[in-house]
Amino acid sequence: MLRSLWAGVSGLQSHQIALDVEGNNIANVNTAGFKYSRANFSDMLSQTSKIATAPQGELGGKNPMQVGLGTQVSSITKIFKQGSVQTTDKNTDLAIQGDGFFVVSPDGGKTYKYTRNGDFVFDARGNFTDSNGYITQGWVRDEQTGVIDSTTPIQNITIPPGLTTPANDTSYITLKANLNSGNSIVNKTPIYTLDSLNNAVDLNGNGVVDANESHNENDLGSDIFNGDKSLYERSIDFGVLFNASGEAFNIQGGQGLWVSYTDAVNKQTITSTGPSTVDLTLNGTTISGTTAGGATAAENAQQIATIINQKSSLTGVEATVNGADITLRNNNASGTTESTKNINLDIGGTDNTGLNAKEVYTAFYYQYATSGAAPVQGVPAANNPLSSRTFTTTEDLRNAMQHDARVNTNYDSSNDAGEASSADSNDGVLVEVNDLGQFQIKNPTGDADADGNQDDHDMALKITSYTNLANNISENSKFTTSLSALQGNLPSGNTLRISQGIYSASHASSIDIYDSLGTKHTVRFEFKKTGFTADGGTQWGVVLSVPEPGDINGGLAPKNIVTGQISFNSDGSLSSFTPSNITYTANNGSSPNQNINLQFGTAGAFDGMTSFDSTSNTSGISQDGFPGGDLSGIRVDETGTLIGTFTNGRSFGLAQVSMAKFTNNNALESDGGNAFIQTSNSGDPIIGQAAVGGRGFIQASALEMSNVDLSRSLTKLIIIQRGFQANSKTITTSDQILNTLLQLKQ
Fold first, then answer.
1. Range with the lowest mean pLDDT among 386-390, 449-453, 558-562, 705-709?
2. Containing H/E element for 25?
3. Are 451 and 439 in contact (CB under 8 A)?
C-alpha cells in the first residue's frame, strides 16, 4: 500500500513542478526575448519482485516482475525557438534574427552575461546598457585609424555625450567623367588667344622681345596666363577643332585654304600698232591668237586684252585697257587651285605683243599636316613663292599668315619680278587670335621697313578652299567657311577683319575639398581638347584651380592654378594623366602642403576618365574630407554597427555590438532579468560579429518577443491539472484501502 501512496506523492510533486514551469511561461508571455521552458518527466526506479529468466528446456522464459515507485522531473528544457519580431519606435531597440546572444557585463567586462532582450539605451555617461543597467559589450572605433576592429577583445560600448568629429582634410579626389571624342559637341570653348609674336611673348608690354620672353606656343607644358588667370599663347591642333555650330572640321592631311592679301595686279604698256601674235602662258593656261592691229597702240592693246580675257575663267585673270596700258588683275576670288590664283605670265617665242614675263604673288595656300609633321614657315624659295605653307596648330597658321601678309605679298608689283621687294613690305600687319577664338587681321597705319620708310598698303582679303585632285585633296568647306569672314577690304588704318569663332571640345567639373580646419574650398577641373596621341587617341589639356589665396603651384605665379595633360587610347580608355597629385596650402591658418591625390582611373581601363563619342559629362566625383560636426543621431545596421550621423553630413561607425554563440544553448543558466550565464555544459561563448559564423543578424528598431505560445501553454496547463488530480486520486484511494485494512481488527 505504501508504494502507491509514495507514487501518488511523487506524481503530485512532479506535476507541481510542471505547473510552476508552465505558470512561469504564461507569466512571461509578454517578456521580450523570453524563451519558454518545458518540464520533462521520467519514472523512478522500480521495485523488482522477480527477475527475468531465460527459457530452460521445455519451460519458457519469464519476464521480470516490477512495481514502479512513481515519477520525477528529470529535466527542465528551455526551448530557444525564434520569437516573433515586433517593430518599435526606438532606434536602439535590437532584435536578433537567428542564433546568438547579446553580450552584457555588470562589472566593466570582468564577467559576462548573455541576453536575447535588445531593449538598449544610452545612460547619462553614454554607456550602451540594457534594462538591468548592464553595459553592452562590443568594439569601439579607433580614433587614430577610424576603424572598428572586431578581432580585438570586446569592451564596454560607450559613446560620450556631445561627441564631435574633428575636421578631416581631403587626401584624394576621385573623378569619373567622359570627354566627348565625337564629331559634334555641345560643350565647347574658344581656342586659346594668340598674340602676333611667334616663339615669344611680350610679358612686360614694352613692344620689345626681351631675353626672358621666349615662349613656344606649341609646347603644351609652357604656361602663360592673362591677368584674369586664363591661359593664352597656347596652340591647339586644328585636327581636333570645331566651328561655331559645334561641328568638327575633321581636317585631313593636305586639306587647307587659299588666303589672298590683296589683288594681284600687273600693268604693262603696248607700243606696237601693227598686227601682233599672242603667244603666252598665264597661270599654266596657254593663250594664243593674232590681232589685226590698229591705227594706234591703244587699239592693238584692246585686241590683246580681248584675247587674254577669253581664258579668264581658267586663269582668274582679267585684262583691262587704259589707252595703250594693259592692266592684268586677279582678285583671287575664284577657283581652288594654283591655275586661278595670282599672276604668272610667261612669253612664248613667237609673241611680239610687247608684253613682258611677270610673276605677281598675293595669294598663298596653307595645307594641314598631321601632328608630328614640321610646319613650313617663313620666306618661300625664290623660284617657288607658292610653295605650300603647312600648318598643324593654330599658331602655325597664324604665324604663316602674318609672315606672308608682311613680307611675301606683292602689294606693289610695278618694280619687282615676282618676289616681294622692300616696296612690298607691310610690316605692321598683325594676325592674332582674340579671346573669342576668332582669327583677326589688323593693318595699322605707320609701320616702317628696315630703312625706316613708311610702307603702308591697303589690303583686300579673299579666302577660298584649296583642292588638288591629282593628290586626292578635297575641299574642307567647314574650315574654309569659318575663316571666310576675314574676306573684305582692309585699308591701312584702325580697322580689322575677324573670322568666325573656332572652338575646342571642353568640359568642367568642380568639387569642394576641406583643409585641416574643416574650411571648404572649391577645386575646379577644366578639360580642353588639344590634339592627338601617337597611337591615334586624343589629348586634352587640364587646368586645375582653387580660389585665392590658395596655393597649388608651389609658390609660383599664378599660385592658385596648375596645368596638366590627360591622354586617351584609341578605344577611349585612359592612357595617362598629369599631375597625379596636387599640394595645397590654403593660407588661412590650416596645415600647409596638404597632399591630395588625383584618382582619374586605371591606365588602359574604363573605371575612371574615358573619351567616347558621347556628350561630355561627369558621372561621379568624390573626396574624403569633411568639416567638424556634432553627433546628431545614431542608427544600427544588421551587423550591429552603431552608425553616428553628424551635423556635418558625415556618417560612420562608432561601435559594433558583439554577439555570442554557444554549442549548447540549453545548458545556459537563467540569471534573472532576461539574462543567462555560462555553465560547464554550455560550452565557451564564441564571440564575433552578427551575421557571421552562424550568428544571426540584427534588426534595429525592433524587439524579439517571447516565444511562449499561449494556446499551447493553456492546453498544457489543463493536462498538468488533470495529471495532478489523478495523482491525488491515487493517494485518496490508497488511504481508503488502508482504512479498510485497519477496520479488519475491529
1. 449-453
2. helix 2-27
3. no
Helical residues (DSSP H) of 405-488, grouped into ranges? 477-483
- Contact (CB, 8 A) for 273 and 302: no
Q: How many other C-beta atoms lie within 10 A of the C-beta of residue 564?
A: 18
Contacts with 642 (C-beta within 8 Å, 6 or more apart), sequence order: 128, 157, 159, 634, 635, 636, 653, 654, 655, 656, 657
Across 286-290, average pLDDT:
94
Amino acid at 723: G
Q: What is the pLDDT of residue 43?
A: 83
In DSSP notation, 149-160 reads -TTSPPEE-B--
- Provide, for the chain, the percentages of residues in helix, strand and coil under a 3-state DSSP scheme, each rounded to the nearest 5: 15, 35, 45
SS3 of 241-297: the string is EECCCCEECCCCCCCEEEEECCCEEEEEECCCCCCCEEEEEECCEEEEEECCCCCCH
CA distances from 295 to 142, 301, 302, 511 (A): 114, 11, 12, 87
For residue 715, give the C-alpha cell. 492546453
Degrees, nearest 5: CA angle 14-17-18? 90
C-alpha radius of gyration, the chain, whole number: 51
Q: Which three cell numbers stand for residue 57?
A: 528446456
Quick one: CA torsion of 683, 687, 690, 696, rounded to 10 degrees?
A: 0
What's the pLDDT tens digit per position in 236-249?
999 999 999 999 99
Residue 321's contacts (CB-CB under 8 Å, 6 or more residues apart) are 298, 301, 302, 305, 327
Identify which of 159, 91, 118 has the alpha carbon closest to the alpha carbon of residue 652. 159
Whether 451 contacts 459, CB under 8 Å: no
Residue at grid coordinates 518545458:
38
- Which has the closest alpha carbon to 174: 650, 604, 608, 615? 608
**Would the CA dihedral through 648, 653, 657, 659 be positive or negative?**
positive
| Grid coordinates of 375 | 610646319
Q: What is the mean pLDDT of residues 117-137?
A: 95
Cell numbers representing residue 515 in the block: 583643409
Query: Residue 322 burial (CB < 10 Å; 0-12/13-18/19+)?
Result: exposed
List pLDDT tens digits, range 137-192.
Answer: 999 999 888 899 999 999 999 999 889 888 999 999 999 999 999 999 999 999 99
Cis geometry, peptide bond prior to residue 55 (ω within 30 degrees of 0): no
Distance CA 606, CA 568 (A): 10
| C-alpha to C-alpha distance for 170 and 621, rounded to whole angstroms | 13
| Helical ranges in 387-508 per DSSP H | 394-403, 477-483
Residue type, 326: I
How many degrees, rounded to 5, is the angle at CA 583 between CA 582 and CA 585? 135
Strand-strand pairing, 172-178 and 594-599: parallel
The domains of the chain, with CATH numbers, are: 2-80+708-743 (no CATH), 85-166+631-704 (no CATH), 172-191+503-623 (2.60.98.20), 238-260+363-501 (no CATH), 264-360 (3.30.70.2120)
CA 442 – CA 429 distance, rounded (Å)? 6
Q: Locate cell 585631313: which residue?
A: 252
Distance CA 588, CA 550 (A): 8
Contact 55, 732 (CB under 8 A): no
Angle between helix 2-27 and 710-743 (nearest 10):
160
137 contacts 104 by C-beta, under 8 angstroms: yes
At 504, list the grid cell: 575646342
Measured on CA atoms in the order 630, 631, 633, 636, is the torsion positive or negative? positive
Question: In a 10 Å sphere around its CB, with 0-12 CB exposed, 13-18 middle and 19+ buried, how is residue 717 labelled?
Answer: middle
**Per residue, what are the HEC states of 207-237?**
CCCCHHHECCCCCCCCCEECCCCCEECCCCE
Q: Indicate the residue type of 61.
A: G
- Spatial CA neighbour of 546 closest among 515, 571, 574: 515
CA 144 to chain centre: 30
Are 471 and 230 contacting, i.e. CB atoms less than 8 angstroms apart?
A: no
CA distance 574 to 613: 14
